[in-house]
From TrEMBL:
Assigned protein family: Belongs to the AHA1 family.
Native organism: Streptomyces antnestii
Residue span, Activator of Hsp90 ATPase homologue 1/2-like C-terminal domain: 40-153
Gene3D superfamilies: 3.30.530.20
Recorded superkingdom: Bacteria
Protein name: Activator of Hsp90 ATPase homologue 1/2-like C-terminal domain-containing protein
Annotated stretches, region: Disordered: 1-26
Pfam assignment, any one: AHSA1
InterPro entries the record matches: ASHA1/2-like_C (IPR013538), START-like_dom_sf (IPR023393)
Amino acid sequence: MSDSTGTEPAGTEPTALVEPGTSRTEGRTHTLHFTIALPHPVEQVWAAVATAEGLPGWLAAADVLEPRLGGTVTLRWLTNGEVHTGHVTAWDGERVAEYTLEGLHGRMRFHLEPTARDATTLRFTNEFDGDDELRLDRLAGWHDHFEHLVAALDGHPTDERTWAAWTPDRWLLLRGRYAAVAE
């Protein structure tokens, strides 16, 4: 088992609320962790991570999202149109939403903890199988998406036109930094 910790990319302005993600690897199974303190009430964060209306503003379009244990979920990435299907594998209203998608995305768990009247800690876990390159891709990808989540919660969701114009520049900077820490 190995343990890697990421840091904020050099040469970029850090997003104060998005701390670097960490990962743990056992064999070919990687588990990524992000903990994000958000100055927003749990209801607002829940709407962003667990509703078909909230997900497109920072992650992907939820073409199907049945909000219940065992429900179907279909996410369509707005940057490239890729579609990934799966099931809701944990659901505890305004507390835990977990989606397990077929293929490379694996299990994604959003655990919300109210820390004050208008503050929430988001504990995120992503477990998937793959090589170390995929681990680095995912660390950078989730970090990038969580920066979009912060913007969405602050009233600036990423719309379809902006997703269509997305470039990998920020992702590449983040990935390079995570890769440098791993060396």
